[in-house]
Structures are given as C-alpha cells and as structure tokens.
C-alpha cells in the first residue's frame, strides 16, 4: 500500500514540483519501481509525469521472486544499469532490447534458459553477468554488442558458442567456466582485444587453430577439460603470462610452446604426458607443475630455466634426472616424490646456489629450499647434496637408502646443510647415522623410523634445536645416549 501511495503521490504532483529522480533515496525508488513493475504502471494510464520514473539510470532489485519481467520494462529508456540478481527469472521480454542506454546488466543467479534476440540491440552494453543460470545457447545477435568489454557466462549449461561471438572486437574478458562446451568456434580468433578467457570445467577436446590470433591474451585457464593436444598456433600467443592445462588428457606439447617467452606459470599436472619438447627450455618460467603424468625422462634443456623457483614432478615414471638439473640456481621447491629414481646426478648440488644466480639481488631474507625425494628407489645420495647450502627440508623417506652421505654434516663441505630444519629418512634400510650428525644445530625435526639402525652416534645429543625425534621400528638395543634429548 505504501508503494502505491508513493507512486500515486509522485504521479499527481505538478510537473514543476516533481522531484528529480536522482534526489530520491535509492531505497525508496527501488520500492516504487518494484511495485510499478509488478503491477505494470501502464495499465493505470498514469500521466506523462509518472513515466519520469523511466528516467532512472540504476535499477537494483535483488532477491525477489518475480520469475519474469513485464514488457513495460522497456519503458525505462534511460536505464544504464539493470541489476536483478537472484530473482528466479526464467525469461526476459523482447522489450529489453529497447533499453538503448544500458551499459551494465547483472542477471546472475536466476533460472534463464535463453536470451531474446533483441539483446543485440543494446549497443552501449559494456558488461554483462549471466552467471549461475541455465542457459544452453546464446543468440547470434550477441555479436552486435560492439561495446561489450566483459561477459560472465559461468555456471550455465552451454554446449557451444555462436560464431557471432567473434564479432565482439572490444571484448577483453570472457568467463565460461562450469559449462558443457565441447568446442570453440573458429571465430574466437577474431577477438584480438581479449586479455583473459576462463574455460575450466568444460568438455573441450581441442582448441581451434585460430586461438593463435589472440595476440593480446595474457591468461587462459583450461583446467579440467578433455584436451588431447594443443594446436601449433598456440606458440603465437607471445603476450601470454599464465596458462593452466592441468586435468586434461594431453600426451604431448607442440614444439611451438617454446615461443611463449612471456609465460611465467604453466600448469600441466594430471595429464598423460610422456615427454617434453626440447623447446620448453626457452621459456622464462617461475613455476612449472608436471605432477601426475607419465614422464620417463626430462630434456636437458630443463636446465635453461634460469628463473624457475617451483618445480613439481611428483607421480611420474622418472628413472633418471639430466645433469642440467643442477643449473636451476633459483629453485626453492623441488618435488620428485613417487617416481622410480635409483640415483641422482652429482650436479644436484648446484640447485638453489643463489650466489651464482642472475637474481641473487632479489633475495633479501633467508632462502629456504625444500626437496622431496620420497617414494623412489634411491639406494644412495650423492655427496654433492651437501652443497645445497640453503636446504631447509629434505624428505628421502620410502627409498632403499642404506646410509646418509657424510657431506650433509661433514666438515669437508663446510657444513653446507647447517640450515637444515627437517630431515625425513623414514622407511629406508639405514643401519647407522653419520658420526657428526650433531653438527645440524638448526635441525628441528628428525624422522628415522622404520629403518635398521642399531646404534646412535654420540653427537646426537648435540642437536640442540630438535623438537621432534622418531626412532620407532629400528633395531636399537640401548637408548641411554639420547636420554638427554628426551629430558
């Protein structure tokens, strides 16, 4: 009743006394327009001054159960922002195409299954959010939205995109995750201004060759699709900085991947990769994730990653590492767990040697290097592992080690592992420990469980920082030597 009275009051005032709409409190105006839309103001034959309501530029009506909009919505000819999230809308009237001044639409979290063809008349539209609806297709007329900069179509039921989408030359960002897309139209390559495209959680099996035309693209997310290969043209995306290809069915990468000189991060985990092209070494990566593939070897060119900080190769079939692995001077995280490695190259001692890094000037605080070699078939560790001065965490559990190299604690290498804080050598075949293990003054955690250790060196009582010690399931007969630690 209040809304009706307020509307009628506005409508019966003389034109000269009718307040400008931009002076009406937005909460009050929303109530009025809400009532007006629900009751269709045109059926009241209101005076022309009443229709000055249509001069509002912003309509915000969230969380209403209105299901559909009346044709009279088209009377709001000065509307610039239409914001109707979570209103249970199932369809839009054709008259929405009359909103020629509209610049932004938010119809997220509704139940729309289609869009009217008249949507293409909204020539001033810059942003449209249709996420979390039930759209199965888009009208061809969407290609007429020449001013469109951003479109969000995530969480719908789209199985394809119209060719007309390639006409959106001004489009910079498109969000299409959580749909059922099986392919992209060739016209996608016409979106030369596109900077970001999000396509994760779809059913894409391939990418069109035209994808290589998106020279301005900086980020593409293709996580969790069914891609089996990549087109050679992907190497043309010279501006690309980040690409996520994890959780696909890729068996190989094109040689052209090495042309992506601007790429910083690439996700390739959970694929079926058997090998990597030599050209991959041309990239200037910071992060490379290759876990859960079928790699049996790495190319020598991997040592050319001068800026690589993060390398994950867990859960593959690697039996050897190339000597060039030691050239990764900036590496601070290396995960080689769950492979079939039997030996490590001597060059591994060069990992994380920031003194010889091109970027040593970037390191202000203490560097911490983490290496995970668990669940392999290692029978020994190279002496040079003691040269990794900033090694903070070393996990060699579940291997076939019979001893630990003296270099991790010995004076010969200048106590290079003096920064070691965590050492996990559980589930091996160790029978003893290095005599000078007590030199590891910063060691906080030491797990030696499930080995065959029979004696402990005297120096173990010198581990003054030790907080966690696990010696369970060994062959120790006497524990007096480390009672001091337990007190």
Can you walk through the features of this model?
This protein has 487 residues and is largely without helices or strands. Among the domains are: 1-53, no CATH class; 295-301 and 311-487, Leucine-rich repeat, LRR (right-handed beta-alpha superhelix) (Alpha-Beta Horseshoe), CATH 3.80.10.10. 6% of the residues lie in helices and 12% in strands. It is built from 3 helices and 18 strands. The protein has an 18-stranded parallel sheet, with no helix packed on it. α1 (2-12) packs across α2. The termini are far apart.
Q: Please state the average pLDDT score.
A: 86
Classify the fold: give the CATH topology of the domain at 295-301 and 311-487: Leucine-rich repeat, LRR (right-handed beta-alpha superhelix)
Q: State the name of the first-level CATH class of the domain at 295-301 and 311-487.
A: Alpha Beta
**What class, by secondary structure content?**
little secondary structure
Number of helices: 3
CATH superfamily of the domain at 295-301 and 311-487: Ribonuclease Inhibitor
- How many strands? 18
- Percentage of β-strand residues: 5-15%
Overall shape: it is elongated
The major beta sheet can be summarized as: 18 strands, parallel
Q: From the alpha-carbon coordinates, what is the Rg to the nearest angstrom? A: 32 Å
The helix content is under 10%
Rounded to the nearest angstrom, the distance between the terminal CA atoms is: 79 Å
Low-pLDDT windows of residues? 1-30, 40-51, 360-364, 483-487
């Amino acid at each position: 009743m209040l809304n009706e009275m307020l509307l009628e009051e506005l409508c019966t005032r003389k034109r000269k006394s009718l307040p400008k709409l931009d002076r009406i409190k937005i909460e009050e105006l929303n109530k009025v327009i809400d009532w007006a839309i629900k009751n269709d103001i045109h059926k009241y034959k209101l005076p022309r001054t009443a229709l000055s309501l249509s001069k509002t530029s912003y309509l915000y009506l969230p969380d209403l159960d209105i299901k559909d909009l009346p044709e009279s919505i088209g009377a709001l000819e000065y509307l610039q922002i239409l914001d109707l999230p979570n209103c249970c809308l199932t369809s839009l009237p054709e008259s929405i195409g009359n909103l020629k001044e509209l610049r932004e639409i938010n119809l997220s979290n509704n139940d729309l299954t289609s869009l009217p063809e008249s949507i293409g008349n909204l020539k001033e539209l810059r942003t449209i959010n249709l996420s979390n609806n039930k759209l199965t297709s888009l009208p061809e007329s969407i290609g007429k939205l020449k001013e469109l900069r951003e479109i969000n179509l995530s969480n719908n039921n789209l199985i394809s995109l119209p060719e007309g989408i390639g006409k959106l030359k001004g489009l910079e960002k498109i969000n299409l995750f959580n749909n059922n897309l099986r392919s992209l139209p060739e016209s996608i390559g016409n979106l030369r201004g596109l900077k970001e495209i999000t396509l994760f959680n779809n059913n894409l099996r391939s990418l069109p060759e035209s994808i290589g035309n998106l020279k301005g693209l900086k980020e593409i997310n293709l996580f969790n699709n069914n891609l089996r290969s990549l087109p050679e043209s992907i190497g043309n995306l010279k501006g690309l900085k980040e690409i996520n290809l994890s959780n696909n069915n890729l068996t190989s990468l094109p040689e052209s991947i090495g042309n992506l000189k601007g790429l910083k991060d690439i996700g390739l985990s959970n694929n079926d990769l058997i090998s990597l092209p030599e050209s991959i070494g041309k990239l200037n990566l910071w992060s490379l994730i290759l876990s859960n593939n079928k790699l049996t070897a790495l190319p020598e060119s991997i040592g050319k990653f001068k800026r690589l900080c993060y390398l994950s190769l867990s859960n593959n079939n690697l039996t050897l590492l190339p000597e060039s692995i030691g050239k990764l001077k900036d590496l601070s995280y290396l995960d080689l767990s769950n492979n079939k490695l039997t030996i490590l190259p001597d060059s591994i001692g060069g990992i994380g040697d920031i003194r010889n890094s091109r970027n040593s000037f970037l390191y202000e605080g203490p560097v911490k290097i983490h290496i995970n070699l668990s669940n392999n078939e290692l029978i020994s560790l190279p002496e040079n592992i003691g040269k990794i001065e900033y090694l903070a965490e070393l996990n060699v559990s579940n291997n076939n080690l019979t001893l630990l190299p003296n270099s991790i604690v010995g004076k010969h290498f200048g106590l290079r592992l003096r920064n070691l804080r965590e050492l996990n050598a559980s589930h091996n075949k160790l029978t003893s420990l290095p005599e000078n293990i007590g030199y590891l003054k910063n060691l906080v955690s030491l797990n030696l469980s499930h080995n065959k250790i029979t004696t402990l060196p005297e120096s173990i009582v010198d581990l003054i920082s030790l907080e966690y010690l696990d010696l369970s399931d060994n062959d120790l007969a006497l524990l007096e030597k480390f009672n001091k630690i337990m007190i």
